[in-house]
Design goal:
Helices cover 66% and strands 0% of the residues. By secondary structure, it is mainly α. The protein folds into 2 domains: 4-42, no CATH class; 85-152.
Length: 152
């Protein structure tokens, strides 16, 4: 059974970060492989928010890339209002919600076997929220499909 320090070395991150993952987010410590799988599924980094970072990530290194102004004044470089989500993006959101709910369910079942009340309570709250988000995503996807079929 690896220690938190060994997992931190394996991941190439700080020990306090791994400690938070283990103690607060239920990262398994049964093996390095289990910890790696958990990290790949549950601890992915958030996507970039900077326009330059997004463009670099998408391979659009255009020097003429127009970045929206942060000032409140009028600007010709403003980005138009976002379009409503497409069916594909709603499907992706639905897939992510299903995966999150299934992972939360798996973690809750695992914690039930450990009989740790505080961990079970936290994971039950996470599971309930994930289930709520999954049901909302499914309803939005069905509504979008129905609206798309009615418009054809």
């Amino acid at each position: 059974m690896p220690t938190i320090s060994e997992i931190a070395r394996d991941w190439g991150v700080s020990r306090p970060y791994v400690s938070r993952c283990v103690n607060q987010r239920a990262c398994p410590t049964s093996s390095l492989e289990a910890a790696r799988e958990w990290r790949a599924f549950c601890a992915s980094s958030r996507p970039p928010t900077s326009f330059k970072q997004k463009a670099k990530l998408l391979g659009e290194d255009d020097p003429d890339l127009k970045i929206p102004s942060r000032s409140g004044g009028a600007s010709n470089d403003r980005v138009d209002a976002p379009l409503p989500p497409s069916i594909e993006s709603l499907y992706d959101a639905l897939e992510a919600a299903i995966a999150a709910q299934e992972q939360a369910s798996w973690l809750l079942q695992e914690a039930t076997g450990e009989a740790n009340d505080s961990k079970m309570a936290m994971l039950l709250a996470v599971h309930n929220k994930a289930l709520e988000l999954r049901l909302r995503a499914e309803a939005q996807y069905r509504d979008a499909l129905k609206t798309g079929l009615e418009n054809k």
